[in-house]
Give the backbone structure.
Amino acid sequence: MRVGDTVNVAETVEKETTPSKGFGFGKLIIAAVAIFVAVIVGVNIKNTKFASSYVSLDINPSIEYGINTNNRIVTIKALNSDAEKIVNSLNDKGVKKVTFYDAMKMTEELLRQNQFITGDTNYILVDVASNNKNRAGFLENAAQEAFKSVNTTLPMGQGSSLVIRRSSIADWKKAKSYDISSGYYAEIKEIVRAKGKCVEQSGEK
């Protein structure tokens, strides 16, 4: 600019104060990303707050664990009177929010301390109720590892025996309607199925 040149003040102010189109689009992208992240976080919190799989442990006592999608305990329930003391102790130890494997190890320790597992004759039934095959397999492996000291090769009546079954959430709901564990419900179904086969075979003779 030289002496004598004219300046359009209004045009200069408009250029300096009007945001560019690129800046507005950038803010729109940031807002969209923020909304997306908030939705994802909200869904994740919802998924981890509630149980998506259930595991019942029957040895007398009978205990049911609710596990979220991160394989952590969110609920625990005593299914009979003998289980109440164990469940109370587990809650005192902070069982909720620990991993399922850690919960199984804590449970095994308490069962031994209270003489429910003695090393003599024990039949331990674990049932995994889940509609996700991968998660069900993971929970089965965790239970087997936690109770690996229990001999799984001997039949019932000849030492400790660990039996692991798998159920659907529909079966779990059915068992709940009968006020029994999903493990006992699975055992009953197996007995009925076996009895049906015996009847069929006897009818063929």
Summary: The first helix runs from residue 9 to 17.
